[in-house]
Design a protein that fits this description.
With 113 residues, the protein is mostly helical. The protein has 4 helices and 2 strands.
Length: 113
């Protein structure tokens, strides 16, 4: 995934924002596992969301692991998550309706044989 392939309107952006909102202090590994993306891609998604102002990143001050970070949604990120959720719902509903139509056509074809 390169910069041209990543779109903050993507399913990855929505799911990442949702996970960051639903789970307190997820690690990049947890995001990687939950989104089924490599750590490199997760890092890229996080950087893109930070650049857009949707999330903030802070280091854990008292962590022995100096690479431990805390990710949280900004007010702009909450707004974007809502917009992306609406877009995601519309897209998935269209896919569902298309599949439902295709299944009905296949059933009719089988019944007519």
């Amino acid at each position: 995934m390169n910069k041209q392939e990543f779109d903050t309107d993507s399913e990855y952006a929505f799911k990442a924002l949702k996970l960051l909102d639903d789970k307190s202090a997820p690690t990049q590994r947890e995001l990687s596992k939950n989104l089924n993306l490599s750590l490199g891609k997760i890092n890229f998604v996080i950087k893109s969301l930070v650049e857009k102002g949707f999330i903030k990143v802070e280091r854990f001050k008292n962590s022995k692991n100096k690479s431990a970070y805390l990710y949280y949604l900004t007010p702009k990120g909450f707004e974007e998550k809502t917009v992306l959720a609406r877009n995601f719902l519309v897209r998935k509903t269209e896919e569902y309706n298309s599949l439902k139509k295709e299944i009905a056509e296949l059933e009719m074809e089988i019944d007519n044989q």
